[in-house]
Structure formats: structure tokens, C-alpha cells
Automatic annotation (TrEMBL):
<dbReference type="GO" id="GO:0005524">
    <property type="term" value="F:ATP binding"/>
</dbReference>
<feature type="compositionally biased region" description="Basic residues">
    <location>
        <begin position="1"/>
        <end position="14"/>
    </location>
</feature>
<keyword id="KW-0539">Nucleus</keyword>
<dbReference type="Pfam" id="PF24419">
    <property type="entry name" value="Cupin_NOL9"/>
</dbReference>
<feature type="domain" description="Clp1 P-loop">
    <location>
        <begin position="323"/>
        <end position="455"/>
    </location>
</feature>
<feature type="compositionally biased region" description="Basic residues">
    <location>
        <begin position="49"/>
        <end position="60"/>
    </location>
</feature>
<feature type="compositionally biased region" description="Polar residues">
    <location>
        <begin position="79"/>
        <end position="89"/>
    </location>
</feature>
<comment type="similarity">
    <text>Belongs to the Clp1 family. NOL9/GRC3 subfamily.</text>
</comment>
<feature type="region of interest" description="Disordered">
    <location>
        <begin position="1"/>
        <end position="94"/>
    </location>
</feature>
<dbReference type="InterPro" id="IPR045116">
    <property type="entry name" value="Clp1/Grc3"/>
</dbReference>
<dbReference type="Pfam" id="PF16575">
    <property type="entry name" value="CLP1_P"/>
</dbReference>
<feature type="domain" description="NOL9 C-terminal">
    <location>
        <begin position="549"/>
        <end position="650"/>
    </location>
</feature>
<keyword id="KW-0067">ATP-binding</keyword>
<dbReference type="GO" id="GO:0000448">
    <property type="term" value="P:cleavage in ITS2 between 5.8S rRNA and LSU-rRNA of tricistronic rRNA transcript (SSU-rRNA, 5.8S rRNA, LSU-rRNA)"/>
</dbReference>
<keyword id="KW-0698">rRNA processing</keyword>
<dbReference type="GO" id="GO:0005730">
    <property type="term" value="C:nucleolus"/>
</dbReference>
<dbReference type="InterPro" id="IPR057573">
    <property type="entry name" value="NOL9_N"/>
</dbReference>
Length: 696
């Protein structure tokens, strides 16, 4: 008996020789991954390796002494679906173990074994298999990829995905044949995205004929013939196209963000080069990069909550997600929304996390209706929710009463008759006053499910079960409490219970803030704000226009009120504080009355916000504000208030102003925070001393 050609095995010494050769390659930086000289060099190395392989094309018998394991250590062979056989050997025999690992690596590259389903789901498309399962058409600048059932592709970069045949899953969302194309974003700031082929059946169809007709539109006859050899009745075929948007062009115009969509330094050695996908802005990753890891408890909770979102309970599902910082709340919520969108047309989302917002710049509380899947981090899907309240700070500790009132005000905007599910995000502040705020939110809103994320087998705060809430003290509420269901429902019914679901996060780096570039929370906030400002760019392809080259709106002093909501500022210094700053464009219920000068607010209002703008200049002589904003002019007519908060413009906006001569406006190094009063004054409203805690 002779081994099949694809199961030919190198001797151990030759294998280690190849490994040493790979490690001796010169270092590659992220910017080199899409560089043509590097790709050419990798192509040449790959061609030399293939030429050497053809010289050894003659199959070797399995009975050859170097490849045959000792008889006493070899168990019965098990047939595989590809017609070959897999040996089950003793792990103590080193040479036999090498044979086993190599044979399994071959089976993982696009072939299905008769083993456990969990092993099949972990199969990663990488290495040599990418050359056989992907074909690129340079004329149309796209690639077609064939994925076998449960096979995955983990990558960095960005692309547009279209499912041509079968169905695939990305971040919980299923993309099927016949659906529209979807943009995928996998930047270095977050966990890499994974495309997974789902189980599908085309028994009633002639898959050869169908796929051949589909591929005619996208590939040349030679490429189509190669790819059809890999198609089975359970395969999925996807079309991958490069993507360039005003967002990506604007971000790449800043030097420190030029490598945002390339693998970070820790993944450079795992980047798979010389594939048909590299030239499209995608860089596949080897299987040692895990991608998104979902624990068993997370899967069970997702199934339970999605069942409730599908209507398995009376009324609409109101799901509150809580947990400490860096435990995966935002990722869980994106997966939950995407999975729910497989079964329902829309999902409502109430943002309660001021520091890590999903659809707006930081410092906002908002209520959104989500109809499209979230296939990237927050900065890739910035939009204007239906209702926004600009709180102005990344934390609510300075004014917790205004925080709670803002959340309740947003929830009142949601019609009581609305049947679609709503998901509520909360802050990572789960101790002290933060825990009390969570207790209040659960009591104020008609919550049906509380999903509590933790790590390490322990909870970082008490389990927020219905039993715990019967005796817990909130910041504004105390037991026994009357729930705010009375406030949001017509009938005054007794408080109903809710389901408490626990999720143990098991991904690498849980509860620790990322230390690599672009992975810190302040950098995430900066990316979200830059993404919002990218809406000022033209949607048409072309060079990026810096903000100082755009024409601003002229807003009279008398038309709007100005408020500083994050700290105490003397009225004579208010205009200095607001100049060259980000402001929230808000709508006060009452009219603004002015006697000719600027109108200044003495208190922070709870009022609707329609978007944001950059106050790029103030003309005190003519009494004008110069405002840059992407908000539509018809909406701007309703704005009568500008709110200045602690969310500042990214420094790159001010320091990267090309075409200027002399000193850069608004930028100085001649400043010392050591001077008394040089820093801003922080005011904490509502916080009591420990001696006062028991007086109320």
C-alpha cells in the first residue's frame, strides 16, 4: 500500500530544517505586509518550495522504516472521509507523534475527519490550503474563497464580504446566499474577526452546476476550474472585495494610525503572507492566534436571551448586561445583537456606559434602533441614534443624579407598545456607588433578564439576583422599594421578577486593559471621535481634506446658549474654554433670550442632543461662533444650545494641520501644570462623606 500524494511526510530532520529556515527570514513590519517587494519575495520562496516538492513527487510506501511506527505502539487505523487513514499512536513515541501531528495538520486544512464536531469547528484555513481554496481575479480586484463545513478564516484588515453559495457566520450574524454585501472590519485595536462556514445542505441541488454558474461571473475559466475541485455539497463560497471608505481614508491620514488595520507586533509571526487575499487588504492569521473565544456559559446565555428576544416570553425582552471593566461586555452585546438580528428585524439599544459607547463619541447616553449587524468595533459603525443626551464626561461619578435622570428620560422616549427587544449596556463600575447605581437601574427599568459577566470563577460584585435586590440599597432607592414599572406601564402591578444569568469570561487577557498600541481605552475613545469627524469628508474618492480647510457655519451669539457641564468655569473665561473644542449640539425646551452678548448656562441641563461639532473659532467683535459639524442643516435649525464637556479633541487633530506656516494654532508647549490653579477644578455632586452615609 502506498500513501496518497498529499500525505507524504518529511523526515524529522528535514522538518526541523524547514523550521529553522522560516525563523531565519528577516523581520517584517506591519507596513510591509501589503508591500509588493515583500510579497514578491514570499512568492519566490513559495515557488522554490513547490519546485522541491515536485522533485519528490513519487509516493513513498507507508512501510518504509523511517515512517512506520513500532508495531507495539500502533493501534487500529480509522478511516477518514477523504479516503486516507489516521493512526492513533502512543504519545510517548516521539517520531510517531511527529507523524500524528503532521497528518492531523493536513486533515485540518480543508478536510473533514470523522472525529468530534468540536474539533471540526476549530479547523482553521491557513497556509498551503489558502492557495487551493482561494482564487483571485486581478482584473476585477476581488477573490473567491471556498470554505468547508465548520472551517474558519481569522484575519486582520478590512473587506466587503458577499456570500455566493451556502452560508457563513461572523460575530454571531449569519450571512446567506442571496443577501446583500456586508463590510468587515478587523483592526489591531480589537480581537481579530473570524469567518466561519456554517453547516448547510444542498442535497436537492446539483452543487457542481450551480457553483459553476455562480463563479462564471467572478473568475476566469482556469481559476474557476481549480476552485470547483474544492466544492462539495456542504461548502460555502464567499466573495471578498477591498474596501475604502471616508472613515478608513481619514484615519489613515494620521501617521500614528497608518497601521491600524495591520496585525500588531505580537501577531506578525502569525501573519500568513503570499495568499490571494493579501492584496485585498486582508491578512490571514495562523491557528496560534485564537480569535474571539466564547465560553460555554456565554453560549448558553446567548441562546437563552435570543430565545426571549424571539418572543418566547410575554412582552418584550429587556436585557441588562453588567460586569466589571475589561470583562467583555461590549463584545458580548455585539454578539447578542447580531444573533438576535438573525431572528428579528431590529433590536433597541440603550447606552449606559459613558466611557465606552457603541454608536457615539464618549460621554453620551443614547437610545438606538439597530437594524444592521455590528461587524467591527464601535468606531466602525458610528451613527446618530434616535435619542441622545450629552452627559459630557466618560464617568458619572461627579453627578450621579443627572446620570440616572438621563437614563430614565431616554427610556421614556421608547413607546410602551414597542415589542422588539431592548438591550441595556452599563458601566464597568460595580463597586461602591457603582453597585448602587446598578441596583437603581434594575429597579427603575422593567428588566426581564440580567446578564452578569465575571471572570476567574468569582464575581467581582454580588450576584444581582432578584433575592439580592429585595434587601439591597441603591443610590436613590432603598428596600422595600416600589419598582419604576409603575412609571413605564399603564397598570400599577406588583414588581415582577427577572432572570439572572451568569457568564464566565475565559478569553486571554480578561480583566486587563490592553497595553499594545491602539488597545487602550483612551485610544478607543479617540478612534470613535475621529470616526465621527470623518463624516465631514466627501463620500467620493479623493484626498483627505484637513478640518481647517473646511468651511464652517457662522452661528450668532444670540441664537444659542453656551454651557460648560464638566467643571466650574468663570463666565469671563467661558469663551476661552470653548474655543477649539468639541461641543454637543442640543435643543433646550425654552427659547434662548439674549441681550447681545453670549448666553451662558449656570446648570447642566438634561436635554436632547442631535450631534456634535468643533467650535473652530470665535469672533468676539461680530459675536459669531464658527462651527464645523456633519449634522444636516435642517436639523441644525432646532439647535439652541452648545454644551462643552470633558471630551476633548484628539491631539492629532490640532497637531496634524498640513499647509500651515508659522506656529500651529491652539498648540503650545509653554505651559506648566505646576502653577497653582493651572488644572481644571473637579466638582463631585451628590457624593457624601462616610460620616454622612447613615443620616438619610
Amino acid at each position: 500500500m502506498k500513501a496518497n500524494k498529499h500525505t507524504q511526510v518529511k523526515s524529522k530532520s528535514q522538518k526541523w530544517k524547514d523550521v529553522r529556515g522560516k525563523r531565519c527570514r528577516p523581520l517584517i513590519t506591519p507596513s510591509d505586509l501589503n508591500s509588493s517587494p515583500v510579497v514578491v519575495r514570499m512568492v519566490k520562496e513559495h515557488q522554490v518550495a513547490k519546485k522541491k516538492k515536485r522533485l519528490k513527487k513519487k509516493a513513498k510506501p507507508v512501510s518504509e522504516p523511517k515512517l512506520t511506527p513500532p508495531k507495539s505502539e500502533c493501534k487500529k487505523t480509522h478511516p477518514q472521509t477523504n479516503g486516507s487513514s489516521s493512526l492513533s499512536q502512543d504519545a510517548e513515541a516521539e517520531d510517531v507523534q511527529d507523524w500524528k501531528e503532521y497528518s492531523q495538520s493536513i486533515l485540518r486544512n480543508g478536510m473533514e475527519t470523522s472525529g468530534d464536531v468540536e474539533d471540526i469547528r476549530m479547523s482553521r484555513l491557513e497556509g498551503e490550503a489558502l492557495h487551493h481554496c482561494a482564487q483571485r481575479d486581478d482584473r476585477q480586484n476581488h477573490a473567491v474563497l471556498v470554505l468547508q463545513k465548520h472551517q474558519t478564516l481569522c484575519f486582520r484588515g478590512k473587506c466587503i464580504l458577499t456570500c455566493l453559495y451556502g452560508r457563513v457566520e461572523v460575530m454571531g450574524f449569519t450571512i446567506e446566499e442571496g443577501q446583500k454585501s456586508y463590510p468587515l472590519f478587523s483592526p489591531a485595536s480589537h480581537c481579530p474577526l473570524t469567518i466561519r462556514a456554517m453547516e448547510t445542505s444542498h442535497d436537492v441541488r446539483d452543487h457542481r452546476t450551480d457553483t459553476s454558474l455562480i463563479l462564471q461571473e467572478y473568475l476566469t475559466p482556469a481559476s474557476r476550474k481549480k476552485l470547483l475541485k474544492k466544492v462539495t455539497s456542504t461548502s460555502s463560497i464567499i466573495l471578498l472585495e477591498p474596501m475604502e471608505t471616508p472613515l478608513t481614508r481619514f484615519l489613515s491620514s494620521f501617521s500614528h494610525l497608518g497601521e491600524l488595520f495591520s496585525p500588531p507586533a505580537s501577531e506578525l509571526m502569525s501573519a500568513v503572507l503570499d495568499t490571494p487575499l493579501n492584496g485585498l487588504g486582508m491578512i490571514p492569521l495562523a491557528s496560534n492566534i485564537e480569535g474571539l473565544k466564547i465560553s460555554r456559559s456565554c453560549k448558553e446565555t446567548l441562546n437563552s436571551v435570543v430565545s426571549a428576544c424571539r418572543g418566547d416570553i410575554d412582552g418584550c425582552a429587556v436585557v441588562l448586561v453588567c460586569g466589571t471593566k475589561n470583562v467583555g461586555k461590549s463584545t458580548f452585546i455585539r454578539n447578542l445583537i447580531n444573533t438576535a438580528l438573525n431572528h428579528t428585524a431590529a433590536v433597541d439599544y440603550l447606552e449606559g456606559d459613558l466611557g465606552q459607547t457603541e454608536f457615539t463619541p464618549a460621554g453620551c447616553l443614547s437610545l438606538s434602533t439597530v437594524t444592521e449587524p455590528l461587524l467591527g468595533p464601535p468606531f466602525t459603525h458610528q451613527n446618530t441614534p434616535e435619542h441622545i443626551i450629552y452627559f459630557g464626561q466618560p464617568s458619572c461619578e461627579s453627578d450621579m443624579d443627572r446620570y440616572l435622570e438621563s437614563l430614565k428620560s431616554l427610556f421614556r422616549q421608547r413607546p410602551q407598545s414597542r415589542e422588539m427587544p431592548i438591550i441595556i449596556n452599563t458601566m464597568g463600575w460595580v463597586k461602591g456607588f457603582g453597585l448602587q447605581l446598578l441596583v437603581d437601574i434594575i429597579r427603575f427599568l422593567p428588566v426581564t433578564h440580567v446578564v452578569q459577566l465575571s471572570h476567574g470563577g468569582t464575581t467581582q460584585c454580588p450576584a444581582l439576583t432578584p433575592e439580592y435586590l429585595r434587601t439591597a440599597h441603591g443610590y436613590q432607592t432603598h428596600p422595600p422599594s416600589q419598582t419604576a414599572l409603575d412609571e413605564f406601564t399603564e397598570s400599577h402591578c406588583p414588581p415582577r421578577t427577572y432572570s439572572h444569568l451568569s457568564v464566565q469570561s475565559e478569553f486571554q487577557g480578561v480583566a486587563r486593559q490592553g497595553t499594545a498600541r491602539h488597545q487602550r481605552t483612551n485610544e478607543h475613545r479617540e478612534l470613535s471621535l475621529l470616526a465621527y469627524l470623518s463624516q465631514l469628508q466627501s463620500p467620493d474618492p479623493g484626498p483627505v481634506r484637513p478640518l481647517h480647510s473646511l468651511t464652517p457655519y457662522q452661528v450668532p451669539y444670540t441664537a444659542v446658549a453656551l454651557g460648560v457641564i464638566h467643571c466650574e468655569v468663570a463666565p469671563t473665561h467661558a469663551l476661552y474654554a470653548a474655543n477649539a473644542s468639541l461641543v454637543g449640539l442640543c435643543c433646550l425646551a425654552e427659547k434662548v433670550a439674549s441681550r447681545g452678548g453670549p448666553v451662558l448656562l449656570s446648570q447642566a441641563p438634561v436635554c436632547p442632543c442631535v450631534g456634535f461639532g468643533v467650535l473652530r473659532g470665535i469672533d468676539t467683535a461680530r459675536g459669531l461662533y464658527f462651527l464645523l459639524t456633519p449634522v444636516d442643516p435642517s436639523t441644525l435649525r432646532k439647535v439652541n444650545c452648545l454644551l462643552l464637556g470633558a471630551i476633548s479633541l484628539p491631539s492629532c487633530i490640532l497637531t496634524s494641520q498640513p499647509g500651515l506656516e508659522g506656529e500651529t494654532p491652539y498648540v503650545t508647549t509653554d505651559y506648566s501644570f505646576d502653577l497653582s490653579g493651572a488644572g481644571k477644578i473637579r466638582v463631585f455632586k451628590g457624593l457624601m462623606r462616610p460620616s454622612q452615609m447613615g443620616t438619610q
